[in-house]
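Hello forum,

I keep getting stuck at the same step: I have a sequence, I want structure tokens, and every attempt I make locally crashes halfway through. Rather than fight my setup again tonight, could one of you with a working pipeline run this one for me? It's a single chain of 112 residues.
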Amino acid sequence: MEYDARTALVVVDVQNDFAHPEGSLYVAGAEEAIAAANREIERAQGAGALVAYTQDWHPEHTPHFARDGGIWPVHCVAGSWGSRLHDDLLADPSAPRVRKGIGGEDGYSGFT
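Reply #2:
Ran it on my machine without issues. Output:
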């Protein structure tokens, strides 16, 4: 991928509940994915591209959590440790963040 000031990199859901071994939906191999994401973030930032981050960001109760009738374990509850971007991810605090799933409904897209 070539980056410049007209391009953007969207880093999707690199959050503790998915990328940390203690996360409720930990994905094995997340450490390698974080390292790869960091390489791309550095390349994009170095070229002047926009880097934005998406975050799963759920209310305490939502119909897709198993305890509320859905299929997923509780994860990425707004403001919780699990919802935070992983500490090893190079995330500029001033970079745009798109939070999804905030309305109590499934929210899988950072573009809608």
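The mean pLDDT is 95. If your local run keeps crashing, start a new thread with the error log.
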